[in-house]
Amino acid sequence: MADLLEIYHSLQDKKWIDLTHSLNADIPRFPALPALEKKDIFTLADGFHVQQFSVVTQLGTHIDAPIHFVEGGRWLDEFALKDFLLPIFVIDKSQAVADNPDYRLTKEDVLEFEDQYGQIPAGSFVAFRSDWHKRWPSQDAMRNLDEAGVQHSSGWSHEALEFLIEERQVKAIGHETLDTDAGVEAAENGGALHQEYYVLSKDIFQLEVLANLDQLPATGALISIAFPHWEQATGSPVRAVAILPE
């Protein structure tokens, strides 16, 4: 008990960063999905205040379980609780994305990160920092469509994902954009999200539409991920928090 209290007090002394966007009816979202709906069922005039929220599983900052894309994949409630408190490693390619919004994070980017910070250990959470979260809450800026309706947004390359999952055996990945795949790549594939399918086919989860990765160090922080205990959910909006080492 004393050890846990010491850990608790130590964590309370650290800086905590919210990695999630707030949810409301006007936030950016995948256009095929409905917006959040909220209404009062009872008010304080009735003696107590109760609200009803109608929200899809993939809205705002959210988690995707393998079943979201993969037949027979794990539901969200089939992951172990310990999978939702992980060391987080942040690969910063924000300048590359600023120069080229279609940028795809490469295996070489991961290796350069490891040259500077050391090898990413198994069981980690790896986040792609693009600073795309600074476009929030504009739907137009988040999607960044051209005249032909092609979305220009950054994403992961297959080689980087394969290396992280197969060689480094990471527990999960995350990014600030609406999709795992770069917008141009998705358009080239007729809208199919091949990289997202690959991630989820490997029986790991991912977080999308993260915020405030620019406030995290490259290494040394923890990420805590919380959401309701849904039964057989393909995903869920989350409250993700980073605990910094200093």
TrEMBL record:
It holds the Pfam family Cyclase. It comes from the Bacteria. InterPro entries: KFase/CYL, KFase_sf. This is Kynurenine formamidase. It comes from Streptococcus gallinaceus. The lineage of its organism: Bacteria, Bacillati, Bacillota, Bacilli, Lactobacillales.
